[in-house]
Write a structure and sequence with these properties.
Elements: E1 2-5, E2 11-12, E3 26-30, E4 36-40, E5 63-68, E6 71-75, H1 83-98, H2 105-118, H3 120-126, H4 129-166, H5 169-175, H6 187-205, H7 211-241, E7 245-247, E8 253-254, E9 261-263, H8 264-283, H9 289-312, H10 324-348
Helix pairs in contact: 2-4, 3-4, 4-6, 4-7, 4-8, 6-7, 6-10, 7-8, 7-9, 7-10, 8-9, 9-10
Amino acid sequence: MEVFNSLSNPTRIGPPNPDRSSFPFLLTLQKKKKMSTLFHIKSPPVRSFQFPHSLHTQNPKHSLSYTTNNTPIKMTSFHRPNALPSLQGTVSEAIALIQSSPPTWQSALLSNVVIFVLGSPILVSGLSLSGIGVAFLLGTLTWRAFGPSGFLLVATYFVIGTAVTKVKMAQKEAQGVAEKRKGRRGPGSVIGSSAAGCVCAFMSIYGVGGEAFSQLWQLGFVASFCTKLSDTVSSEIGKAYGKITYLVTTLKVVPRGTEGAVSVEGTLAGILASIILAFVGCLMGKIDALQAVICVIASQIANLGESIIGAALQEKDGFRWLNNDAVNVINISMGSILAVLIQQAVLKN
């Protein structure tokens, strides 16, 4: 087979003296750099030709063409890699990263991206867009500090809290006691609800206090969310179903939704919510049974303190800065600190 290069002297490739009658075609190999190689075999024209494997080029920049009956027909040969094994490998690496123990910042970030994308319909029902952004940071921090079990605890808090906020929303709106944006929490609310938990998470990540304090940071984390969930549920159920609401400082009957007001229905619902979340924390291995009881007790003491602050100081003259988000930070901080102090007192005895 003779090869005539348009820019060089003729050369020969393939077996010597090939049987030219077995190659009935005019073949042209074209390259991008305006170079062509001509395979010219004198034989009668045919309609089709099956290229042997040895003639395929492994360079995707090359194209292969031939003519039949003086009509040029161009064919391009590409050796495409199989994408399926590559995709499977990427997925396997991602799963391995998510399952890494102890968690890393990379695994926490990837896990939250996946969860937030899949759970976006639920997230947009309970949070504003800016609230979702702050919640993403909280979720990443939680996963890094306490792993999937800690994240599940926060997710349980969010689902229950969002659900009770939607209870009898029309009635609450008519009475003027509903949360803004139909219960969709903004960034201030997310920060106010998670500040103490974030502090405990950072303490755990950086090993403050060493191994002896590791369990205390987990306890404080769980207690902070038990406190906040109890507060949210008692408030929302009280506004929806409370028959009589009392101002905690004077026990005078006041309208639903009054700052510092409590009701029997709301209080009982709040205690139940705290028990449920403490049980989830126990089930996930973050706390033991005794610590679960401590979380419930600490949450109720903190909520009582929050009601007193709300009735006596919130948004009063000289305390305009003490809005609902600031009171939330104080509330969950009290719950977290009380749980740690009670735990230490129990251990000493």
